[in-house]
Amino acid sequence: MAETQSFGFVLSGRNTRAAADDGLQGDHDVFVAKKPMLQTMAVENDPAASLACVRHQFGEHGGVNMSIEASATFTVMEPETMRRMFSGELGPERDFFIYSRHFNPTVLNLGRQLAALEGTEAAYCTASGMSAISSVLLQLCSSGGHVVASATLYGGTHALLTHFLPRTCNITTTFVDITDHEAVKNAIVQGRTQVLFFESMSNPTLTVADIPELSKLAHDKGITVVVDNTFSPMVLSPARLGADVVVHSISKFISGGADVIAGAVCGPARLVNSMMDLHQGALMLLGPTMNAKVAFELSERIPHLGLRMKEHGRRAMEYATRMQKLGIKVVYPGLEDHPQHELLKSMANKEYGFGGLLYVDMESEERANRLMHHLQNSSQFGLIAVSLGYYETLMSCSGSSTSSELNDKEKALAGISPGLVRMSIGYTGTLEQKWSQFENAVFRMKDSSTMFKKI
Description:
By secondary structure, the chain is of the alpha/beta class.
């Protein structure tokens, strides 16, 4: 570790630094996650059980909640210690910290929680979801490199791969239908392709990727699999299904409050360590640093993420079923007619449902906008806003908002209809109350009779 000048990442254990510890001889090995001694198969397969095994970080004075370490820089007892920290000899595994762009104790603790949630050795929390995605791709790909990616991605990710990386880094991308494994295989350029990138549930079409098969296909070619799991925390665990790296926009379901912007990279300790390298690390050099106060806020929300995801999913399932009975064209992975319904059932963590997102296809942007107008302004069913995972229902017309970076041809290839209304189903109010609000809004539309096309 001293050779690469990276800072070892430790997932578990206790703080071991004392006032006189500056003289301790450091271990130069990369720190890899230690699995708890009493870990069982249930822990392996249930994110909530894994989270319960993460060490509890107490506050400075014995508080049940950890303290917020708001310092940008950290002192040492002896000048020689600083040299040893910069050489990689001493690091956060022994409670030695240099500067919060490197590692911060509060942010590090949140990283431990994210690693447990996703079943990875380590995790590093960033200032946004896009900074997590960008940093991973820049770390894994070199100039002249190549990425194979799903044709259906969040608009910002699509723009990064389509425009920014080719212009600035000479990294190109081939977009494919992620459900067509033969097309994925054919798009891989031997000796050049470095990453296979896709979303576990695509934004906004809710296509479910076959993570085990895609991972096997990529690994047979020596390619790293990166999966964006923003839409389905707790529901799916891509790393447990074979993926190498999992990225998140924590701003969404994991936060749940629509009040912070944050991201995470979850993966092998060696990857996280390489991203913190003083000379070559994307996280270290680009500096997408998470604020310690944000990390504290998020760490307090993760313990009830499982409960929230269950309720998001329960309501989404009920609403999708009722919408379908009304004759509305609705797509939700929990419905039996969804093309990947059985696949999702085979991969999903039990009892967490099928996710909190659905979409209705109004066929035209004008009708989509009219529906959203009534849902927000006539009945208070939800809010017209981008993002997702909030306790209120959020809705947007994807083609003219979060997928607007795609041109018309790219939208058609991705299966994004002009009238696609993405809904992130919240859990405020009672289920029956909110459903009544939905029905009232629907029937206020002037052309409600033509809206209900039997499917």
